[in-house]
Amino acid sequence: MRLARYDRAGEDRLAIVEGDELIDILDAVDATGGYYSEMAEKRAWFADMTSLIAAGPAGVEYLQTVADANVARMAQADVKLLAPLDPGIILCSGENYWDHREEKPEVTAKEPEFFIKIPATGVIGPGDDIVWDTKVTQKLDYETELAIVIGKAGRHIAEDKAAEHIFGFTIMNDVTARDRQVKMRPDGSCQYALGPGKNFDTCAPLGPVIVTPDEISDPQNLALSTLVNGELRQNNSTAKMIWGVAELVHFFSTFLTLQPGWVISTGTPGGTAWAADPELGGRPYERPDLVRASGYLQAGDQVICRIETIGELQNQIVRRD
């Protein structure tokens, strides 16, 4: 199932996405009828995406029933999609593809890189502008990533039980201020500052939808790509992750009790603009199928993040001085 959040006259609403059409979930619930107390409970499940996720399997099973309700469908082109959820927190794994490691200063991490993005002003949705604040950074970069949406709380989750805690998957662009993230030392080594490098307004575009696991047979076999102004900059597969989806759920759950509606972002492959920046230790990244970035993102650039089965997340860069 494909689930979205959209704006209807200033109100955030949930929808089932089928092809190019949307079915408003609350309209469909109301169309099914039933006792008042029963309907009140079910409407509460669909007040927002986090409530739906927290409802567990019962909520998703009921959606299968209402999907066939006799309600008007909306063309996706006629509505404004929002980020599919407001996550409680975004847990991020960096350095999770070998080719991304090869295009930047040498790293020797033996476990996933662990940093956090703060959703409050960071999360934006499909079609929203990524604000390039020049007082924050002169080196704004893109990173297309598969994002895991947690469905069931858990701590110390075993890898073979990880799937039981996943509600679905979406796309995140881990927008990064490279000159805030990386400080070079005179000896050529570098110091990372992932807090300021990864957290600023509009740093976490999410969307366009959440796809439940029944539609993704193997999250470790999804094509992933990034286009900037139509140029193919990243082109890889989630099969190339160093630590896979189940390993990352296990890893983060050893530190924190994962909660419904939290997001884990799984890292980006090679092809970022960082590779073209020797000032920050970037190393040339040459592949015949890719257009090597000549520099960082600029005002007016269109960034499209694509992941197979999920779709594409498109945003434009606007400059704020």
Report a brief summary of the structure.
With 321 residues, this protein is an alpha+beta fold. Helix content is 19%, strand content 33%. It is globular.
Classified in CATH, the superfamily of the largest domain is: Fumarylacetoacetase-like, C-terminal domain
CATH topology of the largest domain: Fumarylacetoacetate hydrolase, domain 2
Mean pLDDT metric: 93
Poorly predicted runs are none
Per the principal axes of the C-alpha atoms, what is the gross shape? globular
**Span between termini:** 42 Å
Q: Share of helix among residues?
A: 10-25%
Q: What is the correct CATH architecture of the largest domain?
A: Alpha-Beta Complex
Order of helices and strands: EEEHHHHEEEHEHEEEEEEHEEHEEEHEEE
- Report on the biggest sheet: 12 strands, mixed
Label this structure with key terms:
single chain; alpha+beta; Fumarylacetoacetate hydrolase, domain 2; 2 domains; twelve-stranded mixed β-sheet; five-stranded mixed β-sheet; 9 helices; globular
Strand-helix topology:
Blueprint (H helix, E strand, L loop, with lengths): L1 E7 L2 E8 L2 E4 H8 L3 H10 L3 H6 L2 H10 L7 E2 L4 E3 L7 E5 L3 H5 L10 E5 L1 H4 E2 L4 E5 L6 E2 L2 E7 L15 E8 L2 E2 H4 E3 L5 E3 L1 H5 L5 E8 L11 E6 L2 E7 L7 H9 L9 E3 L36 E6 L3 E10 L1
Parallel strand pairs: 6-19, 8-16, 9-21
Antiparallel strand pairs: 1-2, 1-5, 1-16, 2-3, 3-4, 6-7, 10-13, 11-12, 11-19, 12-16, 14-15, 17-18, 17-20, 20-21
